[in-house]
Write a structure and sequence with these properties.
about 400 residues, alpha+beta, conserved putative lor/sdh protein from methanococcus maripaludis s2 fold, Elongation Factor Tu (Ef-tu), domain 3, 3 domains, six-stranded antiparallel β-barrel, 19 strands, disordered N terminus, disordered C terminus
């Protein structure tokens, strides 16, 4: 039979039930806390099973800024034509080495030869007319003197004297006109002879033919844009055009040492110095880049036009220095210019104050506080992590 909650028997049994439930909950909580502490924290002696250490070593270290670059000739010239016409002959090919003044190409000279012949003929004609006028001038001078003498004695009329004087002046003017026309035609002849000479195109500098734009039989029109036939480049000195990021360019200066490698020769290091930093940037895909120019000798012709290079601008370097991993460094609590590291000696961890010099992303130069061969702590491995991995809980342990 069911008993009512307010019966005397229930009044005495419910407090005991509540006490048992509280005791059970407290006991279960204590067990869970103990298990959690043992699994994740362990005791002071078993928590750290081993340290991840790295030795302090001696070696070389350098700090660099890197950039991608393209190799180009330092000097080149596009050789074109100053006259229009059909390209009759190209005397060179890509890859040929040429000397300054060497014949490169020829434009059909027929039109320009005809103009020169016509100019010369006109000059000869003007000179003949000039000689005729000069001969007439002598006759006119004699007539003018005779008329003047007769007029002074009233032996001839005034009209006859004035006519003789006018004829003399007219002939003198003709001579001046012929002389001016001859000078004009000589100037025209000089221009046409120059154009005739321009039909033969010579190398303005020594170098290598690196490109050919126009070919035999092609008609070139110099009246619009100067037609380019070939490009000559001096390959003895190449310029590496590096594009440096906006954040790095303040650390790059003219004269600083650099080295670079190319895509085709990744194991060969070319050394040089910075020649120039362009003050005006280029925007490539919304990224601000500054051109930095580096000249490098190329006597062996290992570097070729438009090669891709990776450039390293050396900000600093040390030789045979004591080096420590950057991951071992910890900021010093009382000295902002110093660090401390933890050194493992005979199973004991000892902190040491160190002074750091040159530093890159992985290693730092130790100026004082450590010696080569010491083991510095860079991390720790917990026993529970090893146990978790051993029981298949590696994912949980990570």
């Amino acid at each position: 039979m069911l008993q009512k909650p307010d019966s005397p028997e229930n009044v005495t049994r419910f407090p005991q039930l509540r006490d048992k439930r509280w005791l059970g909950s407290i006991g279960l909580f204590a067990v869970l806390v103990a298990a959690f502490g043992w699994y994740f924290l362990g005791n002071s002696g078993d928590n750290i099973a081993s340290y991840r250490t790295q030795p302090v070593v001696k070696g070389d270290l350098e700090k660099t800024v890197t950039a991608l670059a393209q190799v180009r000739p330092k000097t080149f010239v596009d050789v074109g034509t100053q006259v229009s016409g059909q390209l009759r002959k190209v005397e060179v090919e890509i890859g040929d080495t040429v000397k300054q003044g060497q014949l490169l190409a020829q434009i059909d000279p027929t039109v320009y030869q005809t103009r020169v012949l016509a100019d010369r003929a006109k000059i000869e004609n003007l000179k003949a007319q000039l000689e005729q006028a000069q001969a007439q001038l002598g006759l006119d001078q004699a007539r003018e003197e005779r008329a003047r003498s007769l007029y002074s004695t009233n032996a001839t009329s005034k009209d006859a004297f004035e006519l003789a004087t006018a004829n003399l002046k007219i002939n003198q003017a003709k001579i001046s006109a012929f002389e001016a026309q001859i000078k004009e035609m000589e100037a025209t002849l000089a221009g046409d002879e120059a154009n005739l000479n321009y039909t033969k195109i010579y190398a303005p500098q020594a170098g290598t033919i690196v490109n050919q734009i126009a070919f035999e039989g092609q008609t070139l029109n110099a009246n619009q844009t100067a037609p380019i036939i070939v490009r000559i480049a001096d390959l003895d000195i190449m310029t590496v055009w590096a594009q440096v990021a906006e954040a790095d360019v303040p650390r790059v200066t003219a004269g600083m040492p650099v080295y670079f490698t190319t895509l085709g020769m990744p194991d060969k290091r070319f050394t040089a110095t910075v020649r120039q930093v362009y003050p005006t940037p280029e925007t490539v895909n919304d990224v601000i880049l500054y051109n930095v120019l580096i000249d490098v000798p190329n006597k062996e012709r290992e570097l070729m036009t438009n090669m891709t290079a990776q450039v390293f601008f050396v900000l600093g370097s040390v030789k045979d220095a004591v080096l420590v991993p950057v991951s071992a460094l910890r900021p010093h609590p009382r000295d902002k210019d110093a660090y401390f590291v933890r050194v493992l000696e005979n199973g004991t961890v000892k902190p040491k104050r160190v002074t750091i010099g040159l530093q890159d992303r992985n290693l730092a130069e130790v100026k004082s506080g450590l010696n080569a061969g010491e083991e510095v702590i860079v991390g720790a491995i917990r026993q529970n992590e090893q146990k978790a991995k051993g029981f298949g809980f590696s994912k949980f342990g990570r």
